[in-house]
Amino acid sequence: GTAPPVSRGGRRAATYAHRGSSGMAPENTAAAFELAIAEGADYIETDVQLSADGELVIVHDVTLARTTDARLAFADHAPWNVRDFTLAELKKLDAGGWYAAEFSGQHILTFDELLDLLGGRVGLNLELKSPAVNPGLAQAVVARLRRRRDWIEPGARPRPLIVGSFDEHALRDFHTWLPDVPVSLITYDVPAGGKLTDLAGWIFSVNPDIRRLRPEDAARVIEAGMALVPWTVDSPELWRWALDLGVDGMITNYPYALKDMLHGRGPVR
Ligand code: G3P
Ligand code: CA
């Protein structure tokens, strides 16, 4: 098969570093990704969008205002939509100083740079972010991955790749074009019964909001045969609760602490 193994709870639950180790370093930068890898994360979760000139770039928000110095560097470009800047302009921005001075000099990465940085060291859970404001995003990611056969050929893939989105239509397109890559549906609430059964025919994992995840909904995802990987799970209480629900993994801003809870001396169950 092409899908990663389903681990189903307990100490084998996978750790997904949300935007890298974003509790300790500026999200979605090389610093946050390197830290997550060093901390033993199983996957990097990150977000991809399109620049004005059609390049794939790693940014979460649809604007640059929160996580870069764009307001200073491009003072007359409000509201600083990612989509309005070329790659050359995006590369001029500082993407780390907003978090802490020691991280200034971090830059927005392209998707290719991300793949090169990760290498075979860690899995990747890539989110097609806001396809409605990034038309052509799924197609652009497919085109790029087809030139990165090291990431999409099951035999060649050193670590798992999962592609997710809140946008079911973009995800469906992606799956039609690259059916061998497992896909994850990111959602606030687990879909209702009939809908969930349909999704199980082509979706590998469901990423529900941990704050809204009811035990009966967790059980329905597991019963339907999909992996259950909630976001964003950031406290020991929530980690233990999620494990009791039988999760296959957790998306967290604190991969080191989660790994320590899972594999260190602390009790799991
Ligand atoms: O993967 C789930 C999670 O990343 C969705 O929320 O806003 O952090 O992309 P967000
Ligand atoms: Ca995300």
TrEMBL record:
Q: Which domain of life is it from?
A: Bacteria
Which residues does the UniProt record annotate as the domain GP-PDE?
13-262
Q: What is this protein called?
A: Glycerophosphodiester phosphodiesterase family protein
Species whose genome carries this gene: Micromonospora fulviviridis
- Specify first residue, last residue and whole-protein length for the fragment: 24 to 292 of 405
